[in-house]
Design brief:
The chain contains 16 helices and twelve strands. The protein is α/β, with parallel strands linked by helices and 469 residues long. Helix 2 packs across helix 14, helix 3 packs across helix 10 and helix 14 runs parallel beside helix 16. The radius of gyration is 43 Å and the shape is rod-shaped.
C-alpha cells in the first residue's frame, strides 16, 4: 500500500490523522441488529411468498363440495334405485346426494346442459348424439363429460305372429316403442327409420313401456313390444316366451347394425337363459344393445369423480343375466369424451392419499400439499437471500455517502473559489453529521470508520488547496 494512503497513515501516525479543519466527531449509534433493514429484507421474501401462495391457491382445486345432485330417471325405475344406492355410499364419505326423478335420458341431458338447473350428474343412454333432431348443439357444447359406462342396455323385441328376422318387416304394425323422453324410444325410432318404418306412415307408434307394453302385447292390442333391461324384467320376459305365438326377435343383421351405428354392440341371449328346465329360449338369440353412461359436468371435482366411479363399481359391478361380474363400470364413452380424471382412475385407481385415508381427510391433505410444495420449493431456498439483501441495505447507506463525497470534492476541484470552499465545508459537515447519526450494526463498524477516514482525508486535501491559494 502506498504511503499516501490516508487510512494506513492514520493508523501508523495518529498525530497526522487530525484534519486541518475538523468537523463534528460524534460516534454513530451502534446497534446489534438493524431491525428496520431486517424487516424490509424479510418483507420482500414474504411478498414473494404471498404471491407464490396466491398463485397456488388460484391453481389448486377448491375443496370438494359436500352436496351433489343427480338426475336419475322415472321414479322406481332401475336407475332411480341405483341413484338411491349411490346416495347411501356417498353418505358414508360425508357427501350428500340429491336424487331427482326425470322422464329419462333426454330430460337428464337437458338438465345437465342448463347451468341454471344445478344438476351435477345424470344417467344417459348412449347413441343420442347420432340423432341431430333430438340433441341440440347447445347440449353437445355444454362441457359435459363421461365417467364411463355403468350398464349395458340390451334391446329385446317381442312380437306376435310368424317368425320374422328384420325390423323392416314391422311396417304397418302397432309398435310399443317406449315412453316420450326416454332414450330407448329415440334409439328404436332411429333403427326403425333405417329400415324404412316411419311413424304415422307405415306403422303406429305407441308410448307404452314395461308391464303396460307386455300386457298390450299379450292382449293383442299391439303387435310388437320393444323392451330394454329396465322394463324387460326376467318374469315378464319368461311370461312372454311361454306364450304361444309370441317370439323374441333374433337380429340376424346384428353385425350390420353394429357397423352402421358405432354406439351399438351385439348381445347374446343364451339358450335356456330364462328357464333352464324348459330350455327357454330354446335357441340362442342375438340382439343389439347400447350402454348407459354416467355423465357429469366438466366442473366436477376430481376427488368426487373418483368417489362416484368407486360407488358405481359397488352398485353396478355384480353379475346378472345381462352382464358378467366386474364388467361395469368401464371406460367406454360414446357421446361425450371420457373425463381425464375418470381415465386416470380406470388406469391406476385412487390416488395414494385416498387409499390410506378417509375421504374428507385425504381431500384436506391433498389441498394442503399444494400449498406446502411451493413453500418448500420456493420460499425456503429464497430465505438464503435474506442475509445478502440485509447486508446490501446496510452497505448502500455508506455507498450513498461516498457518492455525495465524490460529487462534493469534484465541485471544488473544478472551481476552487472561496465561495465553493465555504459551501464545501458546510456540505461536508452535513455529510459527517448524517454519518454520525447513522444507526448501524456493530458488525459494519469498519465501513463507518473507513468512511470517516476518507472524509477527513478529503477535508484535509481541500484545506491544503485553499491554503495554497
Amino acid at each position: 500500500m502506498s504511503n499516501d494512503d490516508p487510512v494506513r497513515r492514520s493508523a501508523e501516525h495518529p498525530e497526522e490523522a487530525a484534519p486541518a479543519e475538523s468537523g463534528p466527531s460524534h460516534a454513530a449509534y451502534r446497534v446489534g441488529i438493524s431491525w428496520f433493514d431486517l424487516v424490509v429484507s424479510l418483507g420482500i421474501i414474504v411478498i414473494v411468498g404471498a404471491v407464490v401462495i396466491w398463485v397456488a391457491i388460484r391453481i389448486i382445486q377448491p375443496a370438494p363440495p359436500d352436496t351433489l345432485t343427480i338426475s336419475a330417471g322415472p321414479e322406481y325405475s332401475r336407475f332411480w334405485y341405483a341413484a338411491q344406492k349411490y346416495k347411501e355410499i356417498l353418505a358414508r364419505n360425508g357427501v350428500t346426494l340429491r336424487v331427482l326423478s326425470s322422464s329419462g335420458t333426454l330430460e337428464n341431458l337437458e338438465r345437465l346442459a342448463d347451468p341454471t338447473f344445478h344438476v351435477d350428474l345424470g344417467f344417459v343412454q348412449s347413441g343420442l348424439t347420432s340423432i341431430p333432431s333430438v340433441i341440440s348443439p347447445d347440449t353437445r357444447q355444454a362441457g359435459l363429460m363421461s365417467l364411463g359406462s355403468v350398464s349395458n342396455w340390451p334391446l329385446f323385441v317381442f312380437y306376435r305372429g310368424p317368425e320374422l328376422t328384420r325390423l323392416s318387416e314391422f311396417k304397418g304394425k302397432r309398435l310399443a316403442i317406449g315412453r316420450e323422453g326416454s332414450g330407448t324410444r329415440q334409439i328404436v325410432l332411429l333403427l326403425l327409420r333405417a329400415n324404412g318404418v316411419e311413424p304415422e306412415d307405415s306403422a303406429q307408434m305407441l308410448p307404452l313401456v314395461g308391464e303396460e307394453a307386455v300386457n298390450a302385447l299379450l292382449t293383442n292390442q299391439v303387435d310388437v313390444a320393444f323392451l330394454t333391461s329396465d322394463s324387460a324384467r326376467p318374469a315378464l320376459m319368461e311370461k312372454m316366451i311361454r306364450t304361444p305365438d309370441i317370439r323374441l326377435l333374433n337380429f340376424t343383421q346384428a353385425k350390420a347394425y353394429v357397423r352402421s351405428f358405432p354406439f351399438l354392440s351385439t348381445f347374446d341371449v343364451p339358450m335356456g337363459a330364462f328357464d333352464l328346465a324348459d330350455n327357454l329360449p330354446p335357441t340362442p338369440t342375438t340382439t343389439v344393445q347400447t350402454t348407459v353412461e354416467l355423465i357429469a359436468r366438466n366442473t366436477l371435482h376430481p376427488a368426487l369423480s373418483d368417489l362416484l366411479i368407486e360407488a358405481a363399481g359397488e352398485v353396478h359391478g355384480g353379475a346378472s343375466l345381462l352382464q358378467s361380474a366386474g364388467e361395469f363400470p368401464a371406460p367406454v364413452a360414446h357421446d361425450f369424451p371420457l373425463s381425464p380424471d375418470a381415465a386416470r382412475y380406470y388406469k391406476s385407481g385412487k390416488s395414494f392419499l385416498y387409499r390410506i385415508m378417509p375421504f374428507w381427510l385425504a381431500s384436506l391433505v391433498d389441498r394442503l400439499l399444494v400449498l406446502v410444495v411451493p413453500i418448500v420449493v420456493v420460499l425456503i431456498p429464497a430465505l438464503r437471500f435474506v442475509p445478502p439483501l440485509y447486508a446490501w441495505r446496510i452497505k448502500s447507506r455508506f455507498h450513498r455517502r461516498y457518492g455525495e463525497l465524490i460529487v462534493l470534492e469534484r465541485s471544488v476541484l473544478d472551481n476552487p473559489c472561496e465561495e465553493n470552499f465555504v459551501a464545501f465545508n458546510q456540505k461536508l459537515d452535513a455529510i459527517e453529521q448524517g454519518l454520525n447519526k447513522l444507526r448501524m450494526p456493530a458488525a459494519y463498524a469498519d465501513h463507518f470508520y473507513a468512511l470517516r477516514e476518507h472524509i477527513s482525508y478529503v477535508r484535509a486535501q481541500i484545506a491544503a488547496l485553499r491554503t495554497g491559494q
